[in-house]
Specification:
The chain has 280 residues and is of the alpha/beta class. The protein has 11 helices and 9 strands. The chain binds adenosine monophosphate (AMP).
Length: 280
C-alpha cells in the first residue's frame, strides 16, 4: 500500500488508471478502523481494480468539540489493517492540507431538500453540512468511479447519494450492509469508549430493532416506536434520542407500511450510538 498525505501524485495515478478503464474504488473513513470499515475495503476490493482509503478526522462535521477531541486516532494500526486487506492507496491528509484557507472554505451546500434537516440533522446541527463539505473535497481530490459507504450511517448514505446527483458527479455509490459484533451491536469506533459490560448490554439496541421487525405486521408504526423506546430505556443508563419508523427514501413519516426503515440514536454511558434496520 502506498500512503499519501497530499493528493497531487495520488490523483495523477488514479486519473491514469481510470483513463485505462480501471475501476477505482474510494472508501472514506475517519480511521480507528474496525471490521465494519474493513468490510467496505473487502467489498471494494472484490468489485474494483484499485482501492483507495482515506483517513481524516474531519473537524467540520463534529458539532461537539469534546467528541472531536476524544475521537480515537491510531494511524499506525490502521495502516497495518489496510495492508492486511491489500488496500492499494491510503490518503491521510492533515487538517491544513484539507482546509488550507481555514475550515470555512466557501463550500456551497447543495440543495437536496429536507433530508439533511431531520433525525441526525435535528440532533447534530451542522453535522451533515460538514460531512458534505469533506466528502465533496475528498471527491475533488481523489478521482474514482465507485464510492463505498456503510449503511450503518444510513442517513449519511442517502444524503451522499443525493449530493453526488446534485453535483452531477459520475460516481456510483455502493452501500455496504452493517457489520455487527457477536452480540448484535453495530460496530462503531465509539464502541471502544463503552465499558465491556456496557458494550454487551448495548446490544439491546439491536434487539429492539429485531423485535420491531418481528412485530411489524401486528402493530401501528407509532406503537412500534413506543414499544422499542421503552424496551431500550429499560436498560439502566440508556436514553433514546429518537427511535423512528420512516420511509427509507425520504426519511419522512409514511402513511403506509411500505419500504419502512427503523432508525435510532441512543445515549449510553456518555456515548451516542446509532443503528438501523430495514423492516422488509
Ligand atoms: P467513519 O470512520 O465512522 O466515518 O466510517 C467510515 C465508513 O465506514 C462510513 O461509510 C460508515 O458508514 C462505515 N461504517 C462504519 N461502521 C460500520 C459498520 N458497522 N458496518 C458497515 N459500515 C460501517
Amino acid at each position: 500500500m502506498i500512503s499519501y498525505t497530499t493528493s497531487e501524485e495520488l490523483s495523477k495515478n488514479l486519473r491514469k488508471s481510470i483513463e485505462k478503464g480501471k475501476k477505482v474504488a474510494f472508501v472514506p473513513t475517519m480511521g480507528a478502523l474496525h471490521e465494519g470499515h474493513l468490510e467496505l475495503i473487502r467489498t471494494a476490493k472484490q468489485q474494483c481494480d484499485i482501492v483507495v482509503c482515506s483517513i481524516f478526522v474531519n473537524p467540520t462535521q463534529f458539532n461537539n468539540q469534546r467528541d472531536l477531541e476524544k475521537y480515537p486516532r491510531n494511524l499506525k494500526i490502521d495502516k497495518t489493517l489496510l495492508e492486511s486487506e491489500h488496500c492499494d492507496y491510503l490518503y491521510a491528509p492533515s487538517v491544513q492540507e484539507m482546509y488550507p484557507n481555514g475550515l470555512s472554505n466557501g463550500f456551497v451546500v447543495p440543495d437536496i431538500g429536507n433530508i439533511t434537516k431531520v433525525l441526525e440533522g435535528t440532533h447534530r446541527p451542522g453535522h451533515f453540512e460538514g460531512m458534505m463539505q469533506v466528502v465533496s473535497l475528498l471527491l475533488d481530490n481523489i478521482p474514482c468511479t465507485y464510492l463505498y459507504m456503510g449503511l450503518k450511517d444510513y442517513q449519511q448514505y442517502c444524503i451522499v447519494k443525493k449530493m453526488i446527483k446534485a453535483q452531477k458527479r459520475s460516481i456510483q455509490l455502493f452501500g455496504v450492509p452493517i457489520v455487527r459484533e457477536k452480540s448484535g451491536l453495530a460496530m462503531s469506533s465509539r464502541n471502544r469508549r463503552l465499558t465491556p459490560k456496557a458494550r454487551f448490554k448495548a446490544a439491546n439496541i439491536y434487539l429492539s430493532l429485531l423485535y420491531t421487525q418481528i412485530q411489524f405486521d401486528q402493530f401501528e408504526l407509532d406503537l412500534l416506536e413506543k414499544n422499542a423506546t421503552e424496551f431500550i430505556e429499560n436498560v439502566s443508563g440508556m436514553k433514546v434520542e429518537y427511535f423512528t419508523l420512516v420511509d427509507c427514501e425520504t426519511l419522512e413519516p409514511s402513511k403506509n407500511k411500505e419500504n419502512i426503515i427503523a432508525l435510532t440514536a441512543v445515549w449510553y454511558e456518555d456515548v451516542r450510538l446509532i443503528d438501523n434496520m430495514f423492516m422488509y
